[in-house]
Each structure stands twice: as C-alpha cells, then as structure tokens.
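quick one before i forget lol
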Amino acid sequence: MRTRGAVVRQAPGKYEVIDLEVEDPRPDELQVKLVASGMCHSDDHFATGDIMVGTYPMAGGHEGAGIVTKVGPNSKGIEEGDHVIFSFIPSCGHCRWCASGQQNLCDHGASILQGPRWTDGSYRMHTTDGAPVGQACGISTFVEHTTASLESAVKIDKDIPLNVACLVGCGVGTGWGSAVNAAEVQPGHTVIVMGIGGIGINAVQGAKHAGASNIIACDPVAFKREKAQEMGATHAASSMEEATELAKQFTNGQGADSAIVTVGVTTGEHVAQAFASIRKAGTTVVTGIGNMEEVGVPIAISELTLFQKRLQGALFGGSNPNWDIKRQLELYRTGALKLDELITKTYTLDDINQGYQDMRDGKNIRGVIEYT
C-alpha cells in the first residue's frame, strides 16, 4: 500500500517526508496504522551518524503505537482493530536471553539497525520506484502505516490513549528500568540522574517508585530541572559538581548510592563524572548513547577496584517488554506513573525536523508526532 514516512538518506542528514510503498504482512507479521510516535533522541542519532545504520534510506521512528489494520498467517491472537505498542527491541521468546527473562537482550536485537527483516534479509518498505528502505528497529514509527514482526508488538487494552501509550515503547521503560532494574535503587537511597530528557525524566520516576529519599536531577537547562522536580526529583543541580556536593551532604560525605547517565549525547567524560559522584560499592548506570565509534572512559582502575564501584550498562532499562510495557500502563492507570505530563509538544509528521530542533534546543522533554 502507499503511505508517507520520514526517512534519512545519509548521515549526517535530515529527515525528509516522502511517499513509500509498504508490503502486506507475511507470516508472523502485522500491519499497523500509527496513531502516535515519540521523538526519541536515538532517531536523531540516526540522522547525525552517531548511531550507524545498515541501509539508506532509513525510515526512522522506534517509539510508536497504533491500530492493527492487517495480520499475516499465524497472528498469535492479534486481530485487526487491536491496539498495539511497538517494543523497539523484538522478543523471539526462544533464545537464551528471552528464556532467562532478559528480553531486552534478545538475539534478534542484533540486527535491528540493518534495515531488512532479521528473519530472511528481505524488506517490507520501498520507495515508489522500488528501492528498498530500511526500517529503524524493524518497525519505523515515523510512517503513517508500517509492517512489522509480531515479535515487536505488544497488544494493549483499548482504553489507554495511544498518544501517551507510545512513550512506553522506549523512553519510559528505558529510564524507569535504568533506576529500578539497572541501578537497583532501594528505599532511602540517594540518586543522581544526569541529563533530564525523555529518558532521564523517567529515571527520576523510577527512582521515586523505588523509594529513593533523595533524587537529584542534574541538567544545565532550567526548564528541565523544574520539570524533573514536578515528576519526583527532590533536588536539582545545573552541574555534576553541584549534584555531587549535594549527594555528599545527604550521605555524610560518602556520595550517591547510584548515578544514572542519560545525557543525550553521552561521552566518556560524562561517565567519569558520574563515577566520581558515587560512594564505595555504588553503581554508575550508563544509559545514554553518543558516537558509537568513541572509545574510552577516563576513570582510575584503582578507584574501580579498591572502592568496589560498579559500572553498569543499561539497554531498554533491562526491561522485559512483553511484561513491563503492560505493567507500566497499569501504573499509569493508578496514577503511580505519569505519562501525559511527559509530552511537551505535539507535531505533525511534516514538522519532524522542527521537533528535533526543539529537542536540541532544550525546549522539550518529549515531543510526539500525532497522525490524523
């Protein structure tokens, strides 16, 4: 079928909205009419080249929700008219990682930036002249209609608004899980969240959910610091020097129990600053992404060893999307997790580049594309 979507043709580059042809779903696939897509920083990384992809043009977007319009054979209980959220990492259910409760590390996730379907190397999306178009994370939510694997879709109840539910497909779970799962925040802990955007704001929510006594939101942008305090941060700082000093005041000079790095373009220096802010046996969680070719973190090995500090990576916040997406929506229902408040501004698909400029200018916690 004919649809429209935002693609990047090269990196560095900008998104361009073009007409696309989308194939009907094959076995174990579904086609979805997108209702909304969150504008995650990772999709901007595709455009800048910080995250390298395997196929150009690449149709972006990996945080979306919509309504099923077609299903292929073996639809596994999903029917036309169902509401789904896309998980940006698929879950096969059979590999070692899925079977051991680590769906975020599913083996199929290794191919999600290549462009074609990981099962057979074929494409579901093409330009109008027949050239293959890669699908970001196998889903591409910056399109009006997409065809994706059932491994990437989570069916949800129809009473949840899709324009807020879309955020649970990446940003919410990544941030919330970075605190709850990766940092293992406990009641009474002191936590620093470094970088308050679409991920960091949810790390604040996760730390609050886990019972942290002191949650220090660190960001140079005043608007973001204020927003973090509305969402559960107890204190705010404009620099890591200030945040570290606050953490020491709360811990008799020891330092934070954990520091979560969610900076939009993360560098080794950011990680080192977070590492220096934590106590003995504390945890630094690295969730943010920068240039994938950058190597090195300037920390002292002796500090890592003798202070028994932990440096922990976090992909999708250590989530199991088939379970965590649904339970986070239940938290939303009860008021324990804020979603509506995350959305700073909504955009049309044609305004996508303005949305990303607003993000880079520090004006948005989360921009959302809404489709008519």
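fyi The longest strand covers residues 29-38.
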